[in-house]
Design a protein that fits this description.
globular, binds manganese (II) ion, 332 residues, mainly beta, single chain
Length: 332
């Protein structure tokens, strides 16, 4: 797992140990297992949020763990051109390369710990695909795509593109250096990540060494989700077991506790988790395919605007030129 790593975490700032007199551990509310599926042109994903109530996820809508997959030559897949409206897509690439291009002139190449934070706002078309040389060679691919909802006041904003490099993440460690904590957005113990967000939220990738534990101070007004990218361990003071592709929803409190089992599989020597939290938006959510709006009428409007080309047009430089396709509500 390249993402971004450091030789010796002890050189990093430490997260202070929580004071048990004032800080309470968040209890585990649920643990669910992500089903496997396919996205875009057929790349394998785990649907991280399947079976979890929208109220528990708010302000997050949807998350796919893309891979981890070892592609044969000719096999890597992406998406075709497709629209979005009403939210943000956050793509975090842990291993491999993804190229992005959008109808607004945004885009770029993200790899090994980089994040693309795309605010679709009022509407955008984009395409996400591996570069041609990687299609030819095949190779390891692993990443996350997270959908962050926008409050109704920001759903009609102009699109925005944030290109967050792996080296920009704030890196911190636990008191004994047993966990590497990468802050991509929000802050952990005052260490701020680079992502700018509309709703206050935090996105963190933590790698916990075998037998180690991390206690993350977490804003009490945020919800709290831990998704296991790989490895095995426990969560909460109650030490509830967790394994790869499981999502933990925590109840109220101040601290998220994640511990790695002493024994890990050789393919994944550490416990890797994505930690998410944000202030719930608490507005009606109507999600249909690539659109996340507040009402059914706004979804119909989005479909009509897309068909009329009002969400953007595919750049003329794209060869072969593609026409806007039909919306598949099962695909994102
Ligand atoms: Mn997309």
């Amino acid at each position: 797992m390249p993402a971004i790593t450091v030789e010796d975490p002890l050189v990093l700032p430490r997260i202070p140990a929580p004071d048990p007199a004032t800080a309470s551990d968040r209890p585990v509310r649920s643990v669910t297992t992500a089903p496997a599926g396919f996205e875009g042109e057929g790349f394998p994903v785990y649907r991280a949020f399947a079976g979890v109530s929208t109220a528990d996820l708010d302000p997050f809508i949807h998350m796919d763990q893309m891979g981890e997959v070892e592609y044969a030559p000719g096999e890597p897949k992406g998406t075709s051109w497709h629209p979005h409206r009403g939210f943000e897509t956050v793509t975090y690439i842990i291993d491999g390369i993804f190229d992005h291009q959008d109808s607004n002139g945004g885009g770029g190449r993200i790899t090994n710990g980089d994040t693309q934070w795309m605010t679709a706002g009022a509407g955008i078309l984009h395409i996400e695909r591996p570069p041609e040389f990687l299609v030819a060679s095949g190779g390891l691919f692993h990443g996350i795509q997270l959908w962050v909802n926008l409050p109704s006041a920001n759903k009609w904003n102009n699109p925005r593109y944030q290109d967050l490099r792996a080296t920009e993440a704030a890196l911190v460690t636990s008191p004994d250096g047993g966990a590497l904590v990468r802050v991509i957005a929000g802050d952990v113990a005052g260490h701020e990540g680079p992502g700018a967000t509309f709703t206050p939220m935090a996105m963190v990738h933590a790698t916990v060494s075998p037998g180690a534990e991390v206690a993350l101070p977490w804003r009490p007004d945020f919800n709290a989700l831990v998704y296991v990218l790989s490895g095995r361990g426990t969560v909460g003071a109650e030490r509830r077991p967790i394994v790869s592709h499981q999502l933990v929803v925590f109840g109220p409190g101040d601290v998220l506790r994640v511990a790695a089992d002493a024994e890990q599989e050789s393919r994944h020597p550490n416990l890797d988790v994505l930690v998410l939290g944000g202030q719930p938006i608490r507005e009606p959510v109507v999600h249909y395919g690539p659109f996340v709006m507040n009402s059914r009428a706004e979804i119909i409007e989005a479909l009509e605007d897309y068909q009329a080309g009002r969400l953007g047009v595919i750049p003329a430089t794209e060869v072969p030129h593609q026409q806007p396709g039909d919306i598949d509500p099962r695909r994102s």
